[in-house]
Amino acid sequence: MDGEVAPAVEAVAADIADMEIRGAATIARAAAGALATQAKASDADSPDRFRADMHAAAGVLYDTRPTAVSLPNALRFVFQSMDGTTVESLRQSAVDAAERFQSQLERAQDDLGEIGANRLRDGDTVMTHCHSTDALACIEAALEQGKELSAVVKETRPRNQGHITAEQLREWDVPVTLIVDGAARRYLDEVDHVLVGADAVAADGSVINKIGTSGLAVSARERGVPIMTAAQTIKLHPGTLTGHTVEIEMRDEAEVIDDETRADIGEITVENPAFDVTPPRYMDAIVTERGQFPPESIVTLMRELFGEASARPWEGPA
Ligand code: RI2
Predict the structure, then answer these.
(1) Ligand 1 test: best mutation among 127, 133, 199, most atoms within 8 Å of CB?
(2) 258 with 161: CB under 8 angstroms?
(3) Fold of 7-111+309-315
(4) Residue 139 near ligand 1, beta carbon < 6 Å
(5) 130 included as an active-site residue
(6) From atom 3 of ligand 1, which residue's Cα is the shortest distance away?
(7) CB of 197 closer than 6 A to ligand 1?
(8) What tens-digit pLDDT sequence spans the chain (318 residues)?
(9) CA 20, 245, 312, 200: dihedral to nearest 10 degrees?
(10) Which CATH fold would you assign to the domain 112-306?
């Protein structure tokens, strides 16, 4: 049975695909909210019809961006909580689940921030990569503890998302030095920590994050600077427990080079992977709302949270 997707859900999906809505936690929050919107908008006259609408909406959301596992984890949460024998009870359970998911998300980020802040000392300088609300939650909590921090912010080509980080840090009165990505190693001797987020964390402790993270981690290790990943448990990728790999999103070449410049250069291939994989041996700690983990032991938390299975309940009956 084909379901009908509400235009407002299509709009959220388009915003995620275009990165108007971006950042793994923000995407998860928007996806859960969109399922609630779908539940409210559905004019299904039977439970099967209602479920078909919900599956169709989830499919549209799922197909937007492939790497941030927080998105399917948000869909899974709502579908696993959706219960009832009437359209109204199903609708209500979906809306309640989406709200519960969103408030858990907020709490998780606050708790994670408190834990990550414990790693930061008064007077520390932190180097950031891209823009991660989980990473910034650690800095915010440290500031609330009365610690003074400064930051070296990598601009993070191609979309310069470091600018968003710089703006947020300035709102908190943190002194910011903005650098191009290629300058990172030169500045590592001046920083006490490297702090990054994650779009997904694999069962072996690999961190999938914005392109450039892995090179930064290798340099940090070489310079002896500790590097931590701030990642709520919705970033843990259950599929990797059963051997699946995380798909790396390839984005439009136009984000890297404009048409005119490209034409001037001549025939070239341009590639634009949005993420890379940092092996666990280059990461000191993964900080979640459930505590701080050495990357290699994150699998114990994943088994506890997801079991061995990687169900995809939003896909519906075959
Ligand atoms: P929070 C972002 O991806 C960055 O890679 C960032 O580190 C990660 O999501 C996590 O962000 P993109 O959506 O969930 O900008 O910590 O491509 O906000």
Answers:
(1) 199
(2) no
(3) Four Helix Bundle (Hemerythrin (Met), subunit A) (1.20.120)
(4) no
(5) yes
(6) 23
(7) yes
(8) 789 999 999 999 999 999 999 999 999 999 999 999 999 999 999 999 999 999 999 999 999 999 999 999 999 999 999 999 999 999 999 999 999 999 999 999 999 999 999 999 999 999 999 999 999 999 999 999 999 999 999 999 999 999 999 999 999 999 999 999 999 999 999 999 999 999 999 999 999 999 999 999 999 999 999 999 999 999 999 999 999 999 999 999 999 999 999 999 999 999 999 999 999 999 999 999 999 999 999 999 999 998 755 567 777 765
(9) -40
(10) Rossmann fold (3.40.50)
